[in-house]
Specification:
With about 400 residues, the chain is α/β, with parallel strands linked by helices. Helix content is about 40%, strand content about 15%. The protein contains twelve helices and nine strands. The chain starts with a helix and ends in an 11-residue tail after the last helix.
Length: about 400
């Protein structure tokens, strides 16, 4: 064989090998991309066809063991609730109580979780770590308080998740407490303190706003909002250049366009961002699948996904509507990390100043050197402070309010 023939033979084999590698790589990438989406929740989350329409009715419960603290026992529950338009819906939640025998009924700490996604499989109770970013959970169990954590409607259950729609979330929180009271294995009194982080901080503040009229039987004694999403217009505007800000915006615009018929996602999104934002919204935050969303944010425009100002038009009106500017008739604690790059400290400071000027007492605390997630990390001083503040609320101790600006 001539040297020229040998070269051509080598090139032919190399091309075939590269082609095979490219095909295998493409197939592998496609399989991984498809697998990055959350699995469908199990049959537990499917509501019975014949069910009560009364809000807060316990429909189903079963023992729950995933990542539960060693000294505790837990249940997964399914219950009835309503959406902001008063339509009937079904939600799920996890309930945790210490194993110790306790004389008398126990108070409730209602947990409103932060952003996990908008697909049913993104419910915390479905995910590998249901208690990620919950500060002080071991101390909570040690105090013999009962933890009740809603997934919110549309996470776990069907019907679509109303992401950052405050009234929906507040109803999910309040009705999860009512349903937990019906568990035969534990005895709950009517004292409740609500904790929430990020998206859940917005939910917690809305729970405080709605408790008296929606669920007067739930005695809310305090609201602790940790790095809450408060001024939603400012949150969306300030997050356009950041990775997580683009993910949050993708969730929000898809959820709002589903919940509000006057909002057209394609109108607000840049042409280049439309399909990518939809794909990002099909995944959860947490787990290896998030890597695909992170990679897709790199492909998005550096200045954000919006072609039109999200603070204007129907989207802007709905963002303002879902910002928690209403009066809360119970002590309020707002906590902020000093170096948070998602919920910016200046945005939070302006929100607190506006609420204080409107007559809302607030205990406002800033944690030096803490960002959005490290604020609620296991080594954060927040956990101890939060338990101490909650202990005072349950004892009806006077609440401080500094309205610090």
């Amino acid at each position: 064989m001539s040297s020229e023939s040998r070269v051509l033979s080598f090139l032919s084999r190399a091309i075939r090998a590269l082609f095979v590698l490219a095909v295998v790589g493409a197939v592998g990438l496609a399989v991984a991309w498809r697998g990055s989406r959350p699995a469908e929740p199990c049959a537990f989350y499917v509501a019975p066809q014949q069910r009560s329409t009364e809000s807060g009715t316990l429909l189903r419960s079963e023992p729950f063991a995933k990542a539960v603290p060693a000294e505790a026992r837990a249940w997964r529950i399914l219950y009835t609730t309503t959406r902001a338009d008063n339509s009937s819906a079904v939600g799920s939640a996890v309930v945790i109580a210490s194993r110790r025998t306790v004389s008398g009924p126990r108070p409730v700490i209602a947990w409103a979780h932060g952003t996990t996604g908008i697909m049913p499989g993104c419910a915390p109770s479905v995910m590998a770590n249901p208690f990620a970013n919950v500060p002080g959970i071991d101390q909570l169990v040690g105090e013999d308080w009962v933890y009740v954590a809603t997934d919110y409607v549309g996470l776990g259950t069907t019907g679509g998740h109303a992401y950052l729609i405050g009234d929906d979330a507040a109803r999910s929180v309040l009705d999860s407490i009512r349903a937990a009271r019906q568990l035969p294995s534990i005895n709950l009194d009517n004292r409740v303190v609500v904790w929430g982080h990020s998206q859940g901080g917005n939910s917690a503040l809305w729970t405080g706003m709605r408790a008296a009229d929606y669920a007067p039987d739930v005695n809310v004694l305090g609201i602790a909002a940790l790095a809450p999403a408060t001024d939603l217009k400012a949150l969306v505007a300030s997050g356009q250049s950041s990775m997580f800000g683009k993910i949050v915006s993708s969730y929000l615009v898809q959820a709002y366009s589903s919940a509000y018929p006057e909002i057209d996602a394609d109108f607000y999104l840049k042409a280049r961002a439309r399909q990518l934002a939809k794909d990002i919204a099909s995944r959860c935050v947490g787990g290896w699948g998030t890597l695909f969303s992170i990679l897709e944010t790199i492909l998005l425009p550096s200045d954000g996904i919006f072609a039109h100002d999200p603070s204007g038009g129907p989207l802007g009106k709905r963002l303002l509507q879902n910002s928690p500017y209403g009066l809360i008739r119970t002590p309020v604690l707002i906590v902020q990390g000093q170096i948070d790059d998602l919920v910016l400290p200046d945005v939070q400071r302006r929100f607190v100043a506006a609420r204080c000027a409107a007559g809302q007492p607030i205990d406002y605390r800033i944690y030096e050197g803490r960002d959005h997630l490290s604020l609620v990390a296991a080594d954060s001083p927040l956990g101890v402070d939060l338990v101490s503040w909650t202990r005072d609320r349950l004892a009806n101790a006077p609440a401080s309010a500094n309205c610090r600006q």
